[in-house]
Amino acid sequence: MNDATDAAKHIRQLIKIDPYTATHLVADVQSVGAMQSQLLPEKVLSESLELALTPDSKKPSTVEKIQILSSIMSLHEEATSLLAARPTFTSTLKHLEENPAVERWIETGLELHAQPGSCEFCGNTVTQDRLALLGAHFSKDLVDHKKKV
Q: Which intervals hold domain Protein CR006 P-loop (predicted)?
C-alpha cells in the first residue's frame, strides 16, 4: 500500500464515508490546494469532526444566542454611505464612461505612461495633452473614493 491509499483508508474510517479511495484523496487535495485554504488548528479540527459525526438526532437544533457587535453596525452604516456617494468628476471621457473594461485597462496602464512617449502596447505616441485628459478623468477624488471602498 502506498501513502495515499493508507491516508484514504484512514479518512474513510474516520469520517465513515465509503467509498473513499486514493483517487478521491488526490482529487480532494488538488481542490483544496486550488483554494489556498489554511489548515485548521488541531482543536478546531477535532471539534468540527465531532460535530460532523454526531447523528442528526443528537445535534443542536437551534442556536441559543447570536451576538452582534456594535462595530459591525457602524461598518455597515459607513459602507452604505460610502457606496451611495459619487465622487466628483472634473472632466470625464464619454468613451471611458461607456466602456468600463477599457476604463479599467487605461487606469491600470497609466502607471506605465507617467511621461509622454511611445505606448508600450501599440507603439503610438502618448502626448502630454492626452495624459492630461486621462489624468482629469481619473481624478484624485475618484482615486480616493476607490481606496475608501
A: 24-146
- Name 59's Cβ contacts closer than 8 Å, sequence gap at least 6: 51
Burial label, 73 (beta-carbon count in 10 A; 0-12, 13-18, 19+): exposed
pLDDT tens digits along 14-49: 777 778 888 888 887 777 766 666 777 888 888 888
Q: Please give the radius of gyration of the chain, using alpha carbons only, rounded to the nearest integer.
A: 27
pLDDT per residue as tens digits for the range 58-105: 777 776 777 766 677 788 888 888 888 776 666 778 888 888 888 888
The helix-helix angle for 42-53 and 3-15 (nearest 10°) equals 50
For 126, list phi and psi in degrees, rounded to 5: -100, 115
Q: 118 forms bridges with which residues in the sheet? A: 125
Q: Which residues sit opposite 125 in a β-bridge?
A: 118
119 near 125, Cβ under 8 Å? yes
- Give ∠ CA 129-130-132 in degrees, rounded to 5: 65
Assess contact for 88 and 137: CB atoms under 8 A: no
- Which among 101, 94, 87, 75 has a CA at the least distance from the CA of 139? 87
